[in-house]
Design a protein that fits this description.
Layout (H helix, E strand, L loop, with lengths): L1 E10 L9 E11 L4 E5 L6 H9 L7 E7 L10 E4 L11 H11 L4 H14 L15 H13 L5 E5 L7 H14 L9 E6 L2 H7 L2 E5 L6 E6 L8 H9 L1
Parallel strand pairs: 3-7, 3-8, 5-6, 6-7
Antiparallel strand pairs: 1-2, 1-4, 8-9
Helix pairs in contact: 2-3, 2-4, 5-6
The protein binds adenosine-5'-triphosphate (ATP).
Adenosine-5'-triphosphate binds next to strand 2 and helix 1.
Protein name: ABC transporter
GO molecular function: ATP binding; ATP hydrolysis activity
Keywords: ATP-binding, Nucleotide-binding, Transport
Amino acid sequence: MLAVRDLTVAFPPARGKGDATVALDRLTLEVSRGEFVAVLGPSGCGKSTLLRAWGGLLVERARVSGEIAVPRASDGTRATAWMPQRDGLLPWRRALSNAMVGAIAAGVPRERALPRARALLVEFGLGGFEDAWPHELSGGMRQRLALLRTCLTERPVLLLDEPFGALDPVTRRRMNAWLASVGLVSQDGERAVALVTHDVDEAITLADRIVVMSGRPGRIVHEVQAHGESRYDREALLASLDA
Ligand SMILES: Nc1ncnc2c1ncn2[C@@H]1O[C@H](COP(=O)(O)OP(=O)(O)OP(=O)(O)O)[C@@H](O)[C@H]1O
């Protein structure tokens, strides 16, 4: 559903002086329909660059080689929805209106987006807050609203870039437990999710498969699939991060 093959991305130096920054080096990764994949790696290893490549969001001056495969909507646009680390809520719009912004921009008819937004607000624990302004919501509520906005775009591929990175550790753990219970991909099996995170426990809680990247330039150095009740061998995963 989602793939990069031998993807190399380099950013030319600012003002043309010095060396280019090679963010990704011949990276190959596939995400299947119905799969939730977490990409773990140290800061600056190219995780966001990978998501941006899938989302068609790389800056123009980036030098790109290799193959980037993403599903297309019927009108030819990329079928991806991107959620950045910062919630990006519009302060002049109430929660319900904020929830629908992405869907309307993606061409979802308002009459379809509105009832779905109302239903999802309840499912995302925001029932009763439809008319709240963003500044009246807690950090966790804002992130849930931002995630809801991403889901409402009805795009089959969700690209989540540290969606809970701005939250305190306690709220973050709660959000992860909640998100695991919502089951983003299991709802219809038609969706795929790629999550970028620094947080090992977040990856363990949420993902069907964890991919570990090296320091820059980012390559995949370890890959592990969840299985059974215990899901992952946490110690082995931690050891792979230190390797
Ligand atoms: N638009 C850009 N122009 C120049 N260099 C860039 C650009 N975007 C990213 N880079 C560089 O590419 C490398 C990878 O950046 P990227 O944001 O993908 O890393 P990351 O793994 O997501 O980091 P973090 O976890 O800290 O968010 C970094 O060295 C960064 O400085």
